[in-house]
Design a protein that fits this description.
482 residues, two-stranded parallel sheet, flat, alpha/beta, 15 helices, single chain, eight-stranded mixed β-sheet
Length: 482
């Protein structure tokens, strides 16, 4: 998948929120110690300082990159980072008091105690939360999945090392053994190492990653075991992030690389794109804002669309279907129902009229399954993409993004070749590159894949905003459903 050039903002929003809480706890405790009253809101000056501290905390966090590499810091480094972070916040608070000429009325002891307590509390909370994240990784309760490609001799030590140092929150779901190359899937049958199932070998590794939920692959092989260039390139082409121990670094065309720590190992991480971590935060914030606004619009549309759907086709107003999202995660997508109740059953009868060859997607002109035809409620809401609005709930939940690739059905996904999987390297979106490049007119699935890969490789917030603007124009021209 494409990934952050430095892990941080979206993954560490939990640290940022916890730090905000720590600051307020420290401030209220300092006020109580100095004045014997735990509630400073009855004093305007102290009440204003609550918001000053909040602003200073957010400003320092973003400008100073306070949580960059937080998962990799030990006890001492975390303490020094906490002291530096708190020191800058306290300095900003003091500058505010002097600039407003209110410093004489404000207790300097409160500021000092706040700083001391803040350091102690935030250091303790950060340390505890990292232990919790590491434990979650060992218990398999995290979202990002990892497959280890190694040998049977190296696997036990690698697994133990990973579990003891899994501060990145990855979930180790399987092992692929290179010495099994040429033996098919027999080596993976029921075999486990340190409780982790052996899921593939050197031959079946690419197929396993293509058809299962895998986010990242760690390759750790002795020098005498050859790593096929084709396997490495196939993994990158599918959009998987590949971590290669530096003792055997490789490079292929069309990939971005960075050196980082994974567990206790220094690795060369490769993926088809890397972008600044802050841009991922901005993308998620835009999704949350857009998802919230979209859900409110959906509620208004429901008042008009629901009766029209029910009158022409009694039954559920919403249509839900299992789709395949980022790196193989399955989720349920929601739409206003624009087709008759038996649409899925009739789909097989209509496959011969499918405009997309090989059944990789389904598109046809004058689809008879649409409620009321082109001029009925189904045709109208599809023409103006109103049926898509319930997907803003998927965006708000985090299953989808405003901009991304369209999620395939499970049936379509099972037909994917290895290079098609690159479409799953990012969150699926309500709109995307190929939708604004032709929408209904593009019937070649390989062209869809090319445009989706182009989007992933060139992704930036600016590109998302341009696609959103173009989407509005495409919808207003009403040349087909998205």
């Amino acid at each position: 998948m494409y990934r952050k050039s430095s892990k941080g903002w979206t993954k560490h929003l939990d640290f940022i929120l916890l730090d905000m809480i720590c600051l307020q706890l420290a401030y209220f405790a300092a006020y109580t110690i100095r004045h014997g009253n735990w509630f400073p809101l009855d004093n305007r000056l102290y009440r204003d300082m609550i918001f000053v501290f909040c602003f200073a905390q957010v400003f320092v966090t973003f400008v100073n990159d306070s949580f960059k590499n937080v998962l990799k810091r030990g006890y001492y480094k975390e303490l020094t980072a906490s002291v530096r972070h708190v020191g800058m916040i306290v300095l900003l608070a003091v500058l505010y008091l002097f600039s407003t000429r209110e410093s004489m009325e404000y207790s300097r002891i409160v500021v000092g105690i706040t700083g001391i307590l803040y350091v102690v509390i935030t250091w303790a909370v950060r340390t505890l939360w990292k232990k919790i994240l590491a434990r979650r990784g060992m218990d398999g309760r995290t979202e990002r999945t990892l497959v280890l490609l190694t040998t049977a001799g190296m696997a036990p030590e690698l697994i133990r090392n990973f579990q003891e140092n899994n501060y990145g929150g990855l979930r180790l779901v399987g092992i692929a053994l290179m010495e099994g190359a040429g033996k098919g899937k027999s080596i993976a049958s029921g075999m486990k190492i340190e409780g982790i199932p052996v899921v593939a070998d050197g031959v079946t590794m690419a197929d396993y990653v293509c058809q299962d939920w895998v986010d990242e692959v760690l390759i750790s092989l002795p020098r005498e075991v050859e790593l096929p260039d084709s396997l490495y390139e196939e993994l990158i082409a599918m959009g998987v992030t590949v971590h290669l121990r530096l003792l055997r670094a490789m490079k292929s065309e069309g990939q971005k690389q960075s050196v980082e720590k994974l567990g206790n190992y220094t690795v060369l991480s490769s993926s088809i794109n890397m972008a600044p971590a802050k841009q991922f935060l901005y993308k998620r914030l835009l999704d949350i804002l857009g998802g919230a606004v979209g859900c409110m619009i959906t509620a208004v549309l429901y008042l008009f669309i629901a009766p029209a759907i029910y009158i022409q086709s009694p039954g559920p107003i919403f249509f839900s279907q299992e789709r395949v999202g980022m790196n193989g995660r399955k989720f349920r997508i929601y739409k206003f129902r624009s087709m008759y109740m038996d649409a899925e059953e009739r789909k097989q009868e209509l496959m011969k009229q499918n405009k997309v060859k090989d059944g990789m997607m389904f598109k046809m002109d004058k689809d008879p399954r649409i409620i009321g035809g082109e001029h009925g409620i189904g045709g109208i809401i599809r023409r103006f993409s109103l049926d898509e609005f319930p997907q803003f709930w998927n965006v708000l939940k985090g299953d989808m993004s405003l901009v991304g690739t369209r999620p395939p059905t499970v049936e379509e996904w099972r037909k994917y070749d290895l290079h098609h999987r690159v479409r799953l390297a990012t969150k699926p979106g309500i709109t995307g590159m190929w939708q604004v490049s032709g929408r209904s007119s593009i019937t070649d699935f390989e062209e869809v894949v090319r445009l989706d890969k182009k989007y992933i490789m060139e992704w930036s917030m600016g590109l998302d905003l341009r696609i959103l603007c173009r989407t509005v124009g495409v919808v207003l021209r009403s040349d087909g459903a998205m």
